[in-house]
């Protein structure tokens, strides 16, 4: 039986608070300074807020148990969250009691309306859908026009060659927004982000596009910067930006 899941914890070195989670791809889940913990727009995440406040390196990242099935991982996640009380603001950053694959439900008379999935669940589901053998769109389960109706308005429609080429160019490695962003600090430290657009959306640093294009060092006069933006401007002052 394939058991790809692991149970893990992130421990804040400053205050000792814990975050318990499960995943089947630690290398991706923990990459890019924890960016994959960023919640969708309009949602909150105590752990993401802590990452922004203390920084990814302020946490000790530890795999607790390996080689788990999804069911085993969910069960253990629930037990560990309960054991260490990590759904309590005093002790941790979990927003649910766990044990449900990352689902978080809001109460409703019918039980389901208004539910949403956490980032943890979305991440694991994304990995599952990338597998050709598990994705119903690629494993033969869905056959348009046979066991499923064609999407409304799409039957008989095909992308034009121009549109296909345009999309190919956008997704291709030559498009600047599809490349990794590399930030080099004056002391030689390097910060890597998946893309410029992700960095911009997360940090709100619009000047990144100009800096990548020119290759110039970022210089700023704080007299002309709004108070809410000064912290990030100070952090990246003297840095150079490039994409690869």
Automatic annotation (TrEMBL):
Residue span, GIY-YIG domain: 3-95
Domain of life: Bacteria
SMART domains assigned: GIYc
Cleaved signal peptide residues: none
A Pfam entry, by short name: GIY-YIG
Name recorded for this polypeptide: GIY-YIG domain-containing protein
Species this protein is from: Limosilactobacillus mucosae
